[in-house]
Structures are given as structure tokens and as C-alpha cells.
Amino acid sequence: MAGVNPVLAGLACRCPRCGEGPLFRGFLTVAPECEACGLDLSKADSGDGPAVFIILIVGCIVGFSALITDMAFRPPIWLHLIIWLPLTLILCLALLRPFKGVMIALQFHNRASEAGGKDV
Ligand SMILES: [Zn+2]
Q1: Cα(108)–Cα(60) distance, rounded to whole angstroms?
Q2: CA of 41 to the centre of ligand 1 (A)
Q3: Are residues 23 and 30 in contact, defined by beta-carbon separation less than 8 angstroms?
């Protein structure tokens, strides 16, 4: 619980303990351990957590934006599709990494791995 803010470290996709080493090896693959402090990240698993939040947040943003745009400008349906489908994809992909980072960081800071009773 040093000076590392779990939310900021997660948003930056950095190690939850030192805030220095990269959290991911690929786009969403969690590195086996932190390059900077050696923290074991192999047990870090956010499961479906980030996807749930992103579905709710992106769904809310895109859904209401499309509704308001439709009420205000009455654009044709093809224009809706051209605007909102790519925006949905871009928002989801852009949010996945930071959300997964935040969830793993919060799991580390709240010692979620202890819940199973077999980890340290
Ligand atoms: Zn580290």
C-alpha cells in the first residue's frame, strides 16, 4: 500500500505495486511478473469484470447519444450506423486495457486473491 494509486496505475496499465513495470505483455495478456519490482502477476485475473463495466458505460453513452441525435436531427438510419457502430467498437477497444488494469490493480490492493483461501 505504498504511494501507488491503484486507479491511476491501472489506467496507465502499470504494475499495481510499483506503478512502473508494464502490466500487459500483449493487448490484453497480463505479463507473468512485473519487470520493475518482480511482483507475481500470474494469478491476476479480472475475468469478465472489465467487459461488464464497458458494456454498461459504452452502451449508455452510445445509446443515449444515438437517441438524442435522432430526436434532434432525424438523420437517416445509414448515417446512424456509420456513426455509432465504429464509435462503439473504438470506445470498447480503447476502454478495455485501462479497465482491466484498474480491476487487477484493485484486486491487488484489496488482496482479492486471499478470498480463495489458498494464496498468500
Ligand atoms: Zn511492479
Answers
A1: 29
A2: 9
A3: yes
What's the gap in Å between 40 CA and the centre of ligand 1?
Answer: 9
Cα angle for residues 107, 59, 55 (degrees, 5° grid): 30
CA–CA separation, 84 vs 70, rounded Å?
A: 12
Q: Comparing C-alpha atoms, which of 91, 48, 49, 98 is closest to residue 66?
A: 91
- Run of H or E including 62: helix 49-73
Q: Using alpha carbons only, how large is the chain's radius of gyration in Å?
A: 18
10-68 residue pLDDT tens: 888 898 888 888 888 888 888 888 888 888 888 777 778 888 999 999 999 999 999 99
pTM of the model: 0.77
Instruction: Find the 71 Cα to ligand 1 centroid distance in Å.
Output: 49
Q: What is the pLDDT of residues 70-83, one digit of tens each?
A: 999 999 999 999 99
Residue type, 113: S
Distance CA 21, CA 31 (A): 10
